[in-house]
Amino acid sequence: MKLLNFGFRLVGGGTHQSKTMMLEELEGLLGTGYRTSEALKASVVDDNSLGKTTVSTRRLTYRHMSSLFGLVDQPVLTKVLFKLWSADREGHRLLALLVSLARDPILRDTATVVLMGSVGQNLQRPLFETALSSAHPNRFSEKMTRSLAQNCASTWTQSGHLLGAVRKVRQRVSPSPSAVALAALLATVAGFGGPSILSSMWMQVLDLSPDQAFDHLRRAEALGLARVRSAGEVTEIAIRQPMAATLGVRDLELV
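The structure assignment produced for this chain is given below.
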């Protein structure tokens, strides 16, 4: 229940059954400055802030974005995203990816393909198809598996992990302190603590070794987004309370 209240989605189809993480649309929508669910919906559907050609397309776009980023119910994770987004323009693509991974189980199923790929390696669609088929045997048709693989690979391209329209080549990403703090928060809510946060999948997604993750959290600490202590064999990492105070998201202390 804690994970769900925070904003995680543990089961279900997910937005990647028909869309990617829609980074361009998210940039456009959150760039309006609106944050309430009513204003965000009106911006897309009524004001056509994303430049869609028909009303039905506007509504569908908002529905997909709302599902992936929690724009209607606005769980704690969405509130944190809004705050970090406004303060960290350079970190947008990785902030969007981390939230997408938390909220779309299908996208999470493809993370191993990217994490196990070495920099410069060609990661083609069949690798993503195999990962999805292994995670969901006999669940999807061949056509749907292909579409899911394409959408997920596109999201990993938008995040900066892959380069190329057709030939997808693995790249190393460079996370901002805010993205590292969000990764640590996700790891904490998922049950990791102390040094295990540094080696969690959430830090691996940011292409950080445990030592690099610790150094980056030191930078996040300077922004008030973390509290890090290391003495001998003991490593203490606090995320909820510092982020709650700095971002003004008091609900963080309740999850």
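Interim note for the steering committee: Strands lie at 162-163, 169-170, 227-231, 234-238. Residues 110-170 form one domain.
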